[in-house]
Structures are given as C-alpha cells and as structure tokens.
Amino acid sequence: MKQEDRKRIYSQEYADLIIEYNVSGEELLTFEKDPRNFIDEKYAVIYFPNSKISEPLVNQSGYYVIPKLFGLVETSSLEEIGVTKIQNIPYLSLRGQDVLLGFIDTGIEYTNPLFQYSDNTTRIVSIWDQSIPNLQATDRTFYYGTEYTREQINEALQSDDPLSIVPSTDEIGHGTALAGLAGGSRLENENFAGVAPAAEYVIVKLKPAKETLRNFFLIPEDAICYQENDIMFGLQYLFNMARRLKKPIAICIGLGTNQGSHGGTGVLSDMINTLSDQVGIAITIAGGNEGNSGHHFYGEVDKSKGYTTVELKVGENEQGFSMELWGGVPGTYSIDMLSPTGQYVPRIPATFNEHRVISFLFENTTVIVDYLLLETQSGDQLILLRFKNSAPGIWRFNVYSGPISSGFHIWLPMRGFISDQTFFVNPNPDTTITNPGNAMFAITVVPYDHTNKSIYIYSSRGYSRTGVVKPELAAPGVNVYTPALNNQFQPQSGSSIAAAFTAGVTAMLLEWGIVKGNDRGMDTVQTKKYLIRGVKRMPNVVYPNKEWGYGMLDVYGIFISLRGEG
Fold it and tell me: What is the pTM of this model?
C-alpha cells in the first residue's frame, strides 16, 4: 500500500468497509477507486471517505460490509478441570510445550513475571500492537500497527524504563488476565499457575473502533469496542505466525457482540470456520454474559391477529442504540411503531431494501429503519433499527408476517453498549450466545461456579438461531483468582475467563496430539470432540442443553475416555 493509503487506516475521515473481493466486479464498482488491504484469499478492507457514506449504506452495499463492533465479554480452578492430575502423570505432563497461545484483545502487560521464564526473559514471541501507528509497516502486519519481537521485548525487560523501548502495554487488563489464566508461569509466592505454563505467546492488541462506525451504531462514548475487520486481521496474523514458526496455536477470543444473525454467519464467523479446519489450530470463543440481560426477544406471529406485539422499555438518558430483527426463511416480516407518547407509525411494508427515516415530534427521537429481505451472508431477512435521542418509556412494535411465519428474533446491543435500564419487557434468555460464538466449528464456552456447580447467573444460553448446539461446554468462570495489572490478582467472573481456561486446555491437547505425535491431524473440530468426550456431567440433567452444552470441562476425563473408561 502507498503511504497515503496507509494513513486512511487510522484517519477518522475514512470508514473501514469489508468486501468479498472475489465476487462480481459490478457489485464492487462503488469501491473500485478506494485502496484495498487484503485479509486473506476471500476478504479485504477498503477505506472509504466518510463524505461518500450516505444513510442507505446498508441497503446499497449490504449489511456485511459494515464491520460489527465487539466488546469485552466480562463483567483453585486447575484442580476442577483436571489440569493438575494430568500434569502430575509423568507420561503426559502436558504443559503446552512447543505450542503457541494466541490472543486478540486489549494487549498484554509484558513486564509481568507471568509471561517470563525463570531467567527473566520473555515467553512472548511477538506483540502486534495495532494502536501504535507505523507508516513503514509491511504486509506482515497488513501495513498498519507496530510489531515488537522477542528480542525487542527482552531488551526492554533489561531496561530501567521498559516502555521507552517497547511502548505497548495493556491499559485495561482484560488481555493480561486471559493470557495469565491460559498459560501464566508458576508464581510460588502467589500460589498461581496458568493452565499451560510452558506455552509461548503471540499477542494482538486491537486498535479502538473509529468514530464513524461508533456513531453509525450509536455506541456510547465510554464503551470499549473494537472493529470486526481488525479482529480478522489479528486472526490472520496469529495464523501466519504459527505457520512461520511451524508450531500449533491455541487461539482465545474473549470478545463478543449482539450484532449479526446469531446463526453462525457473517464474515468473522466465516473466517473462523475456515481457520478452524486448519491442522494445528484450536479456536476458543467466549459465549457471552447476556442470559439475563433482557436483550433478546423471540416471537411467533399470532395467526389470529396477524401480528405479535413487542414491548421495549427504554431507560432514562439512553442517547441512542441499534436493534436488529432477524426472521428465518420462508417468513417475511414487517413492523409498525408506537412511541411512549402515543405517536403511531403505520406498518412499514416489507418491500425490497426499504429505507425509512422516522421523526417523532414529542419525543425528539429519530428512528432509522432499514429492511433487507435477503441479507447477503445468512440469506435471511434483517430489519435494522437505529434510535437517535431515544426517548425513555415503553416503545411498542407490532411484528407482522406474510402467509408463512417461521419465528423471529430481536437483539439489543450487548452489555456495555447499552444501559442496564433498556430491555425487552418480556425477554427470552435463550439464543443469547454472542457472536462470533455462534460460529459452527469454533469451541464456544460459558462460565460456571466451580465451588457449587451452578451456571453463572449472567451466562449466555444457546442454541444458535439455526439450532446448532452452542455452547459446547462450560468452564470455571465465577470469582476466579485472576491476574490483574501491576502484578496484582483479583477475583473475576465472566465467559472470557472460562474461554481462557479452555484455551489453555486446548494448548495441552495440541501438545499431546501435534507435538507428541498422537494425533497429527488435530484441528479445532477434532479438539472440540476430545473436549466433549471428557466432560463431567451432573446426574438427572439431559445433555446437550442450552446452558451447559455437553457438560463441564475436564481434561483428565478426556484421557480416561481414551482408555475406554468414559
């Protein structure tokens, strides 16, 4: 890329759009003069002037081209998941040797002893910090961000001022926590060790989402969020590093969103499914903490009335938010609206690519409605609503269908992207796994309390919108003793904690299978099957189910099952 083109990657005057560049040229005519940054053999990102973005963008170019926004799915465990037993068996003693742990997150506090060998050298192979601009960046880092090597990190660790040499760090702590749980070195003074303490790290620190995209989806200013395309570039970077080093890699994604079909489609899910089929790759994803948030509604149209009413309570000081209605084939859906003060908007017909801007006089609210009768990635119908200056109170929507109704789902934004005072009056806790946790081939994990064997109160629930079993399993994720910034520890809960534990276990399995030669064809799907074989289950509970998947993570149980004792 030319240097002028690289500036667009960071410039707030340009929006990032994702294109499938091997489709017909006619579909891409709008973007033919804009620079392209290739992610893989299918997808690329173009940097499009904000001035050329008109409101009907969704209808003109498709919903998938707009990167979705992802947030952090957060709000004595090694014995619980069988790690200690396995590591105490001399023949196995799996600790992640010659395996990489990959994280796409908030970065890493590389000065923490958790990420160092006993001689105080780093266990980190490289850090790609997307947030530090570098106009000399090469195609190795997709022409943006700054890459720091093991040698540079070691030089920094020997300095009195490490950040003057490698200025990348984790200001939030989320990435540091997950990396520490998955593979942190044993710290005797803290009585702590990660699951795979012999593994090495490859780290991607995501750059914050651009204002244009945040404004389009009406994300609060203080919300931590990242763009889908940056996550995709990060995934490809991890894959490329693993191939370059000829080592297997266990990847952990502790991010999620309620945007998208929740059916395993979308460009990020598509990429995850493709990489999951690669030998030596195991991808674990946090399932989310949306189960009791009130952010999901499921309905079927009442045939006697011809519609079903949805009530949405909007909280005080809710500046704006988006809402997505997804209807499965062969159903066709349309809506009307009633504002809190009684202004009625008649039924908006389900015409092809309808775009409507509706102003509510007394509420001073604007609702932008986009109909996509055939959303490109899923083939299903999407109605996207964006509320600007959203008035508090009860908003009512009647959802109508054509002659055939197959049921519809509506999602509000995930926790952190919307206030706790905005929710559906009659929500449904199922089908609340955040994306990309619905990607079919990935390993999707939810948290439970290992002290009393209860599912986490906020845990998202399955299945996917298309009926795929999600999550596959549950792992410890409630009040877990977790690394924090400045070499501290604190109890934390959430599905990303469970995903970190599981990623560490997948590193152990990759060592057993790939490194030690017991299953050299192991990929994410095969790894998932091993995990499912070993799960612990409670009596009188039917599995799989929407809360626990197939059961509780237990790496020791995997090897018991391989002896024919499971």
Answer: 0.94
